[in-house]
Write a structure and sequence with these properties.
single chain; alpha+beta; 25% helix
Length: 177
């Protein structure tokens, strides 16, 4: 009798924990979708029509958005910083360009970024060395980025590596070619 009671109580606890976990995942997905929808409205207000969010990074009360906008034959690329306010998300800073930019550092209102593209078709990894520290960027290799509140990436060294760790290409930011 005692064992049966423990099994029933354990089963109930398991079901409650699993259900709570699944609900939190669903709530997080819904919340992210709501943020994306609110930010798309803000991008439209900037005359960036038909925005398509590629990546969304949430940091406390800020969001960094990497996006494309416009019609497919004239699609443009943009990066924007938004801040969470009492009445929704507000645009802080950003930039837009005609195509996905080559590797560069970007300064937004509250964040430093280094962004880039594949750089070499055989590259499988990107490493950014800055202030004596090596970092592996976020995002797929065709659209990679690093975001920092403290580190300025304007003098960073970027390396594209193959599957064996061999350097295929290297770029020192802040130096003219």
């Amino acid at each position: 009798m005692q064992l049966k009671y423990k099994l029933i109580v354990s089963g109930i606890i398991f079901v409650l924990l699993a259900g709570g976990y699944l609900l939190s995942i669903k709530e997080e997905e819904t919340s992210r979708r709501q943020v994306e929808d609110e930010i798309k409205v803000q991008l439209d207000a900037l005359n960036h029509s038909i925005p398509r969010i590629l990546e969304l990074e949430m940091m406390d009360d800020h969001a960094i958005v990497f996006y494309r906008w416009g019609l497919s034959n004239s699609e443009k690329f943009g990066v924007a910083e938004f801040k969470k306010e009492n009445n929704g998300w507000s645009f802080e800073s950003g930039f837009s360009t005609g195509e996905y930019p080559s590797t560069q550092s970007v300064e937004l209102a509250n964040y430093h970024l280094v962004i880039g593209n594949r750089g070499d078709r055989d590259a499988v990894e990107v490493v950014v060395e800055n202030e004596g520290k090596a970092e592996t960027p976020e995002g797929p290799i065709g659209l990679w980025y690093l975001i920092s509140e403290e580190h300025d990436y304007s003098e960073a060294n970027v390396q594209w590596l193959d599957g064996d760790g061999k350097v295929l290409k290297e770029l020192q930011l802040g130096q003219s070619d």
